[in-house]
Amino acid sequence: MKFHKDMLLLYAVTDRKWTGRQTLYEQIEDALKGGATMIQLREKDLPESRLVAEAEKIKELCHSYHVPLIINDNVKAALLSGADGVHVGKEDMAVSDIRKIVPEDFIIGATAKTTEQAKKAEQGGADYLGVGAVFPSPTKQDAIRITRDQLKEICSAVSVPAVAIGGITRQNIEELAGGKMAGAAVVSGIFSAQDIQKETALLKKKIQEVLNL
Ligand SMILES: Cc1ncc(COP(=O)(O)OP(=O)(O)O)c(N)n1
Ligand SMILES: Cc1nc(C(=O)O)sc1CCOP(=O)(O)O
């Protein structure tokens, strides 16, 4: 699927921790019904073969809603499953190396916590940046924090669009107004909700207001 910055508006990043009443597949379907514009499968503990099998099923689901599926960290699993792209951080394969081995429309997202990292990712061929943590994150408690001004500075330093991440909820997203991001990437603010579909829809409406869309 060809990347467009509108896909970043509400980027739902999964966390199996919140499954129980529902399977991850059902939770993702609720997020899609609520209007999530991109999904990232973030699995830290699954063996690669299971990750590929999961990703194949979730890709079909996402595509039935015309939404791209991105795989966290694992380029090989993303390619084997036919997912639309990968998101990498500084511990992962370099963006420039990934760009050399993937098909033309393959989406590459990269984490950037400084303008230097943002420029390097852009030069390497990243399609978008994930910039945070803009609030304390329940999902990644050791995530390095950045201020709203740093978010704005990083987003302004590059031409590729960026999504804010880290502790974003419907209640605090307004504090990011003017941050120059194209959208929000959210884990617990979506997947911890009792009613994921409803929370996703409300959060999307709020983001549209904050971004003046
Ligand atoms: C959209 C988005 N932005 C940032 C991240 C963080 O990625 P990374 O730095 O690789 O850290 P882990 O996700 O591997 O803990 C992300 N996943 N998505
Ligand atoms: C995966 C991830 N990366 C971050 C970063 O700052 O790079 S924060 C984060 C977790 C985001 O989850 P939640 O919406 O529950 O805070």
UniProtKB/TrEMBL annotation:
Catalytic activity reported: 2-[(2R,5Z)-2-carboxy-4-methylthiazol-5(2H)-ylidene]ethyl phosphate + 4-amino-2-methyl-5-(diphosphooxymethyl)pyrimidine + 2 H(+) = thiamine phosphate + CO2 + diphosphate; 4-methyl-5-(2-phosphooxyethyl)-thiazole + 4-amino-2-methyl-5-(diphosphooxymethyl)pyrimidine + H(+) = thiamine phosphate + diphosphate; 2-(2-carboxy-4-methylthiazol-5-yl)ethyl phosphate + 4-amino-2-methyl-5-(diphosphooxymethyl)pyrimidine + 2 H(+) = thiamine phosphate + CO2 + diphosphate
UniProt-listed InterPro entries: Aldolase_TIM (IPR013785), ThiamineP_synth_sf (IPR036206), ThiamineP_synth_TenI (IPR022998), TMP_synthase (IPR034291)
A Pfam family per the record: TMP-TENI
Cofactor note: Binds 1 Mg(2+) ion per subunit.
Magnesium recorded as keyword: yes
Positions contributing to Mg(2+) binding: D73, D92
Protein residues bound to 4-amino-2-methyl-5-(diphosphooxymethyl)pyrimidine: Q40, L41, R42, E43, K44, N72, T111, K140
Residues given in the record as 2-[(2R,5Z)-2-carboxy-4-methylthiazol-5(2H)-ylidene]ethyl phosphate binding sites: S137, P138, T139, G167, V187, S188
Cofactor: Mg(2+)
EC identifiers of the protein: 2.5.1.3
MF annotations from Gene Ontology: thiamine-phosphate diphosphorylase activity
Keyword Magnesium: yes
Annotated pathway: Cofactor biosynthesis; thiamine diphosphate biosynthesis; thiamine phosphate from 4-amino-2-methyl-5-diphosphomethylpyrimidine and 4-methyl-5-(2-phosphoethyl)-thiazole: step 1/1
Thiamine phosphate synthase/TenI domain residues: 10-190
Keyword annotations of the record: Magnesium, Metal-binding, Thiamine biosynthesis, Transferase
Function statement: Condenses 4-methyl-5-(beta-hydroxyethyl)thiazole monophosphate (THZ-P) and 2-methyl-4-amino-5-hydroxymethyl pyrimidine pyrophosphate (HMP-PP) to form thiamine monophosphate (TMP).
HAMAP family in alphabetical order: TMP_synthase
NCBIfam families per UniProt: thiE
Family recorded in the similarity comment: Belongs to the thiamine-phosphate synthase family.
Name used for this protein in its record: Thiamine-phosphate synthase
